[in-house]
Write a structure and sequence with these properties.
Strand order of the largest sheet: 5-6-4-1-7-8
Number of strands: 17
CATH architecture of the largest domain: 3-Layer(aba) Sandwich
Mean pLDDT: 96
Bound molecules: adenosine-5'-diphosphate, magnesium ion
CATH superfamily of the largest domain: Phosphoglycerate kinase, N-terminal domain
Number of domains: 2
Largest sheet: 6 strands, parallel
Helix content: 25-40%
């Protein structure tokens, strides 16, 4: 169900209230990585070039409803001003008279950045009064913050629900939906999924849904040990979610041979650099803990990936932050880049998997790296996002 984008609506002279993701790292009042702001610029320019009066709202960090200076959006507003090469206004609140006055003073093409939404606990509670106060600030609503699109907050749900004008997505969300939706719901085959990361319990619904879509789901990461144990394999001292074993057994039964568990694992004594390592085949021997997929698994998984026409990856297959347990994850990243080079479509979702691809220097060699870790995982569960359902259709 394609959504209208900013390009589909008239914004000239209108107050455009837009939710962006300016949740950037800030140190000593300076933005240390401006990627998210840079990525928002095309949508911002599209609106200001056509004479929209743009009001930008975002969260930054976790101030938990407290006015916390270190989480101010002022540094982000300064970066945006430099990127646009023009004045960007900032107001140190996101609701109330002062804000309304600043919005009234906007001229066509002006940009105003509001202070951190999460200085109010009402934001994450999707509070109705707070939503109404936000809604007052715009004639038109735009959501271009994919990272929070799976959460019904005041700025993503309550406010647009209160607004009667056009409600659309920006170009960032449009791109996320295009790649994720095409990969998950209309894949060229073979379609290979790779799932890893910390916990099965985080990802069970995504696994369930992906199993109905993919040709094979290759499992790695710490979550593999819970599934291995459920499959009756030894897991030694590896981290296992004991209370999820029944769930894992059901999953295995339902998945059949679509779900692939690692035939071998690289194990260590403790998760630290310099720990002795060994390769365990089949199960994991007593006194050892699994920290990465093994060489046979790398061979098998990369062969599957290189043969694929569509690849979706969520979750590192090992504790890649600690060497040598990064080998499996790096091998997967390179195999996905190779497949992409040969014409496959590849989509990386998940914050840590995205970081791994970035670290491998392969960000430009895959089709799409999602900007929303939690949101992309949520997308993979197949459940529609309420925040997008309420926006206008094409
Ligand atoms: P994503 O953010 O990509 O969805 P997760 O947050 O689920 O991924 O998991 C990432 C974390 O899982 C990383 O910190 C990684 O070190 C850890 N991890 C993956 N495999 C293992 C393992 N075998 N042992 C310990 N930690 C692991
Ligand atoms: Mg993560």
């Amino acid at each position: 169900m394609a959504k209208k984008t900013v390009a589909d609506i008239d914004v000239a002279g209108k107050r455009v209230l837009m939710r962006v993701d300016f949740n950037v790292p800030v140190k000593n009042g300076k933005v240390t990585d401006d990627t998210r702001i840079v990525e928002a610029v095309p949508t911002i320019k599209n609106i200001t070039d056509r004479g929209g009066r743009l009001v930008l709202m975002s969260h930054l960090g976790r101030p938990k409803g407290e006015r916390t200076p270190e989480y101010s959006l002022k540094p982000a507003a300064d970066v945006l001003s430099a990127l646009l090469g023009k004045d960007v206004r900032f107001v140190d609140d996101c609701i109330g008279e002062k804000v309304e006055k600043a919005v009234t003073e906007l001229k066509d093409g002006d940009v105003l950045v509001l202070e951190n939404l999460r200085f109010y606990k009402q934001e994450e509670k999707n509070d109705e009064e707070f939503s109404k106060k936000l809604a007052k600030l715009g004639d038109v609503y735009v959501n271009d913050a994919f990272g929070t699109a799976h959460r019904n907050h005041a700025s993503t749900y309550g406010a647009p629900m209160q607004m009667t004008g056009p409600k659309v997505i920006g170009f960032l969300i449009e791109r996320e939906l295009k790649y994720l939706d095409e990969a998950v719901n209309n894949p060229e085959r073979p379609f290979i999924g790779i799932m890893g990361g910390a916990k099965v319990s985080d990802k069970i619904e995504a696994i369930d849904n992906l199993l109905t879509k993919v040709d094979k789901l290759l499992i790695g990461g710490r979550m593999a040990y819970t599934l291995m144990k459920a499959a009756g394999r030894r897991t030694g001292g590896s981290w296992v979610e004991e209370d999820k074993l029944d769930l894992a057994r059901n999953l295995l039964k339902q998945a059949g041979d679509k779900l692939v568990l690692p035939p071998d694992n690289v194990c260590g004594k403790e998760l630290e650099e310099g720990t002795p390592t060994t390769v365990c085949e089949g199960g994991i021997d007593d006194d050892w803990k699994g920290f990465d997929i093994g060489p046979k698994t790398i061979e098998q998984y990369t062969a599957e990936i290189k043969n694929a026409k569509t690849v979706i990856w969520n979750g590192p297959v090992g504790a890649f932050e600690i060497k040598p347990f990064d080998k499996g994850t790096m091998a997967i990243a390179h195999a996905i880049a190779d497949a992409t080079g040969k014409g496959a479509t590849s989509v990386i979702g998940g914050g840590d998997s995205a970081a791994a691809v970035q670290e491998a220097g392969l960000k430009d060699k895959v089709t799409h790296v999602s900007t929303g870790g939690g949101a992309s995982l949520e997308f993979m569960t197949g459940k529609p996002f309420d925040t997008l359902e309420i926006l206008d259709r094409k």
